[in-house]
Inverse folding.
């Protein structure tokens, strides 16, 4: 990356809305430590997706990608009860919505929102 681009980004991140958002996120992480336990660290979903694609020799399902980033390495244990509940709820919702053996999307956004309990936005 060119130095002037980098300096411009650093300046942008150091002021105004970026700093406000950073402080809000820092506060939320401290207030809810059990909600912020991921095994992926600084590795993006895209990178995990690429690695899984290489390992499986095909595109991974959304659930496999979720498990990769929400289970402890080398075990079948989720990083939190919340992650386990989300996975189980999503799997059950998908089974209820789609008859086994029929085509269905890899990711059903409505089923995911229902499983996570996130509020619906527009």
């Amino acid at each position: 990356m060119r130095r002037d681009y980098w300096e411009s980004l650093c300046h942008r991140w150091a002021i105004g809305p970026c700093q406000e958002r950073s402080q809000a996120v820092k506060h939320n992480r401290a207030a809810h430590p059990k909600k912020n336990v991921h095994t992926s660290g600084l590795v993006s979903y895209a990178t995990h997706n690429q690695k899984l694609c290489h390992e499986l020799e095909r595109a991974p399902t959304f659930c496999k990608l979720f498990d990769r980033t929400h289970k402890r390495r080398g075990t079948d244990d989720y990083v939190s009860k919340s992650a386990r509940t989300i996975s189980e709820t999503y799997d059950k919702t998908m089974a209820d919505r789609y008859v086994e053996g029929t085509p269905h999307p890899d990711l059903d956004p409505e089923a995911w929102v229902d499983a996570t309990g996130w509020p619906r936005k527009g």
Remarks:
- Residues 81-97 form the longest helix (17 residues).
- The two ends are 36 Å apart (CA to CA).
- The chain has two domains: 1-31, 35-116.
